[in-house]
């Protein structure tokens, strides 16, 4: 592998990953889908450490979308149990990394005990400042925009809506837009992730299934990003 991306100062401030391919990873091994999600969860634990080491300040992952409720009940229940397990067993280790856990998405439909655990994890890690680790669960970009509009209407917002008005009503208004969005497992789409926030994000796609995404794969994504020239609609100088 060539130079470390950190060397040239072009590390994304906010890295977002669409965790895809757990099911295919499991199928290849003749395992149930849930085993793929378990392997994906283990990978996520490892990645928090690696991402922090790279000097990234915000790390968000798309773990469950507003559309994922349409999956078979057994898989949805299994994922909810995994989220519970993760929060119960891993919060202290994440805190020890200096990471603040934040959840992003709608609260409706999530089991009340899970919601309670989520709030507890946020509270427990709220003073950590090295990394914001953002778990997008029951998240959808369209839902976020609709929720922001509805919140403004409820407040009796008058006059034209500005971008800033809308942003203030997003789930995590203080989090900067993702600089780099990675999607694993070969699909070339955004699937309703960070819909508004990705206007000027860079995209990186890899065929690697999420449970196989490792340090080398992360470095390859970051090195690729470091070579991009971001112009935000402006001219090349
Ligand atoms: C997509 O793979 C993955 C998911 C829908 C779930 C991702 C969840 C985890 C990795 C567990 C993370 C746990 C926490 C606490 C965030 P897929 O099922 O769509 O795979 P496929 O496209 O190969 O079928």
Folded structure, characterized:
Residues 1-7 have low confidence and may be disordered. The chain has one domain (3-226): Decaprenyl diphosphate synthase-like (Undecaprenyl pyrophosphate synthetase), CATH 3.40.1180.10. The longest helix is centred in the middle third of the chain and has 24 residues, at 73-96. The protein is an alpha/beta fold. The two termini are 30 Å apart. It contains 7 helices and 6 strands, in the order E-H-H-E-H-E-H-E-H-H-E-E-H. Strands 3-4-2-1-5-6 form a 6-stranded parallel β-sheet, sandwiched between helices. The protein has helices at 22-28, 33-53, 73-96, 112-125, 141-154, 163-168, 215-226, and strands at 14-18, 58-65, 99-104, 131-139, 180-183, 202-205.
List keywords for this structure.
disordered N terminus, binds farnesyl diphosphate, Undecaprenyl pyrophosphate synthetase, 237 residues, 7 helices, alpha/beta, 6-stranded parallel sheet, globular
Task: Briefly note the CATH topology name.
Answer: Undecaprenyl pyrophosphate synthetase
Report the helical percentage.
Answer: 40-55%
Work out the number of β strands.
6
What is the domain tally?
Answer: 1
Biggest sheet strand order reads: 3-4-2-1-5-6
Task: Summarize, please.
The chain has 237 residues and is an alpha/beta fold. Helices cover 41% and strands 15% of the residues. Helix 1 (22-28) packs across helix 2 (33-53).
What are the SSEs and their pairings?
Layout (H helix, E strand, L loop, with lengths): L13 E5 L3 H7 L4 H21 L4 E8 L7 H24 L2 E6 L7 H14 L5 E9 L1 H14 L8 H6 L11 E4 L18 E4 L9 H12 L11
